[in-house]
Write a structure and sequence with these properties.
Strand content: 25-35%
Strand order of the largest sheet: 1-10-3-8
Amino acid sequence: MRKFMVMLMVVAAIAVMTAGQAIAWHDGYAEVTITGGVVTDNTLSSAATIPRGVDYFTIYVPTITSATVSVKVSPDGGTTYDDLFCLNNGTNSVLWSSAAGTGGMYLSPPPDCRISFFNRIKILTGAAQAADRTFKVFFKKDPSKSNN
């Protein structure tokens, strides 16, 4: 019995260490702050984990040096990143990006643009930033899915 309890504690400790980012869901939404954001003189943020089962996202863009904002996504745990392309009115595929601006806004891609196939996301600005920028990403599950 003692060996069983020790084995159980080891398995539980491993599960806790590998669980990754804890996500709190509220009414189908989860908020993640991209730690490190886009740092001075760069255009690409650090990565954020896309929670399992997520379909949609919205980005809060803080005040930035005037630039477009787009995202890069990874299907393989962050080994490779590619631009996110979305369907435009269900017909053609386009790079999802904002118009150039100075931030202070929320950006959402069109409803046809789902990210359920990816597990990491980075924010890309079209111009190097004059100071460190912290972005927030709000993830949303399809309403027909559970909040867990």
